[in-house]
Amino acid sequence: MTTATTTATTTADAAARPALVELDDVSKYYGTVRALEGVSLEVHAGEITCVLGDNGAGKSTLIKIVAGLHQHDAGTFRIEGDEVSLAGPREALDRGIATVYQDLAVVPLMPVWRNFFLGSEPRKGRGLFKRLDVGLMRETTRSALLRMGIDLRDVDQPIGTLSGGERQSVAIARAVHFGAKVLVLDEPTAALGVKQSGVVLKYVAAARDAGLGVVLITHNPHHAYLVGDRFVLLKRGTMAGSHLKDGITLDELTRQMAGGSELEALRHELERESVSPAPVSAASGPAGSVSAASVSAGSVSAASVSADVSGYSKEAAPNRVE
Ligand SMILES: Nc1ncnc2c1ncn2[C@@H]1O[C@H](COP(=O)(O)OP(=O)(O)OP(=O)(O)O)[C@@H](O)[C@H]1O
């Protein structure tokens, strides 16, 4: 068989395989609160599906369904083609879905290798002489990290002494080592600076290259676009867009994420205020209103403006000039 034929066959095989995870028209309600409605996404081996949304968009709820913490109320959740409703996180793990939360569950004073094996410690010896196989854990941790390109100074150091980015990287390597098929990452770069975010994204890409299907939850379109293959935009629990990388530019993704026309309206409003500022007295505006003194048009970035600007009424603006 020629190389071209082999490649074509492999691609056809991949296309024929069901998605590792597929949500189809999924909804979730907390009492009367609609947290998710009609949300669909696919996660494939060797791909990164990014789920983007502002605060309250439903990202955590989506993670909880995929991680087995909550059950969906409507729609279909499939894992490798099987329709499921996971009974708990253990079942998600057994089906190969590992979730790395932003506030990682680590024991800060324990060494990196001990945290790496937490809950799955190998033992050696028999009967009364059975004890933890420290040498194996230490060596395995070191080599598993190196395989992902993570070169820690010392796997004996307490995990609490690592930077936030390093801790996220160790958690990613751990999921890969323990055979996860799907890696769900809950805003792994949210609390990190630019450089550390880049490092973590590199390991997210390494997990993809190791053949995992990755779900990257983020509110940062720049981070998503750097590594993502698919983009699902959530807004107040509903789908605001679903795109393949080929089908959307970074600018468009950012625009959709920021609320497009709503952001435009806000910018227009703020620009007017910065051109003709009215005197602002400390007591002139109602508590919580937006003032030109505290927010200048230039200091409001697309990402920092909530998609919901409907609460910013003209009447409430303290120094609006007509
Ligand atoms: N346990 C709950 N009970 C009632 N309402 C909830 C519960 N959890 C979430 N919600 C509501 O569901 C909606 C989606 O919340 P969710 O936490 O999934 O959003 P999110 O995108 O993760 O937000 P954030 O980025 O702020 O964490 C919100 O309106 C939220 O208030």
UniProtKB/TrEMBL annotation:
- For the keyword Metal-binding, the answer is no
Any idea of its EC number? 3.6.3.17
The GO molecular function terms of this record are:
ATP binding; ATP hydrolysis activity
Tell me where in this chain the ABC transporter domain is found.
21-261
The record's Pfam families line, in alphabetical order, gives: ABC_tran (PF00005)
Annotated keywords: ATP-binding, Hydrolase, Nucleotide-binding
Cell inner membrane listed as a keyword: no
- Top-level EC class, please? hydrolase
Q: Which PANTHER family match?
A: CARBOHYDRATE TRANSPORT ATP-BINDING PROTEIN MG119-RELATED, SUGAR ABC TRANSPORTER ATP-BINDING PROTEIN
**Entry protein name:** Galactose/methyl galactoside import ATP-binding protein MglA
| UniProt organism field | Streptomyces jeddahensis
What are the top taxonomic ranks of the organism? Answer: Bacteria, Bacillati, Actinomycetota, Actinomycetes, Kitasatosporales
Quick one: which gene encodes this? mglA_6
